[in-house]
Design brief:
Length: 236
């Protein structure tokens, strides 16, 4: 399989349906979206550049994550955030339906687009994009993020690096992504006519802000899932 296809269908109350199909390279986990010859000004790297961005404008003229969002901004910038929609997410494995607001649907798609971009600050999220779970609850997000992080630490150990099992590094990842979301809200305000896209990135940022606290305080809430195993450690 050379690429992964994830399709978002937005079905509005007026029966209008808009479809966005994302192709992701199966190895690099980067989006295969074509880049326009003349990207809009809001995609320039120096326009609302993230405070922690590791890229330099003399090498990268345009923000990789912003370029990845050009098509969705063109398609959805006229939608109001509070409008109702049926979102259908189609992958090779399944279809997921959710009656929700436009901003919630776009939020899920924006997270996927950021994770599949060439932005170095979103590289951690690429495995989660590969196994995309739209509209995940806070508990599901904690499960996915901590599992992904601990598996990455296993591979670091295999490669000869010191692993982190305290999850301190995971909290740091989410603190860095908060700066990315803050900068992107400025980009999208300049790019969009209505508030659907901007409120979607704000909603995405709320998840990012809650994660360091959730990682530190809420893991005990899922500890009970492991009790059958932890109560009989000598069996394994």
């Amino acid at each position: 399989m050379s690429h992964i296809t994830i399709e978002y269908r937005f079905r509005l109350d007026n029966k209008q349906e808009d479809t966005y199909k994302l192709l992701i390279d199966a190895k690099s986990l980067q989006a295969l979206s074509p880049v326009p010859e003349d990207p809009p000004g809001w995609t320039l790297l120096t326009f609302h550049q993230c405070g922690n961005c590791p890229l330099h404008s003399d090498i990268e003229q345009h923000c990789p994550a912003a370029v990845n969002m050009i098509n969705i901004v063109k398609r959805f910038n006229n939608l109001l955030s509070y409008g109702k929609t049926l979102v259908i997410v189609v992958t090779k494995e399944r279809m997921i339906y959710n009656h929700t607001t436009i901003q919630r649907g776009i939020c899920s798609l924006l997270g996927l687009l950021m994770a599949s971009s060439r932005c170095p600050l979103t590289d951690f999220f690429k495995p989660m994009a590969r196994f995309h779970l739209p509209f995940a609850s806070t508990e599901e997000t904690i499960w996915r993020a901590t599992s992904t992080y601990l598996l990455s630490q296993y591979f670091k150990k295999i490669d000869g690096y010191k692993p982190d099992i305290t999850l301190e590094g995971l909290s740091d990842i989410y603190q860095k992504i908060q700066k990315v979301n803050k900068a992107f809200s400025g980009r999208l305000r300049a790019a969009c006519e209505h508030d659907g896209m901007v409120n979607a990135i704000i909603l995405l940022d709320l998840f990012a802000k809650s994660m360091p606290w959730a990682i530190e305080e809420s893991l005990d809430e899922i500890r009970h899932l492991f009790m059958p195993y932890l109560n009989h450690p000598n069996f394994y």
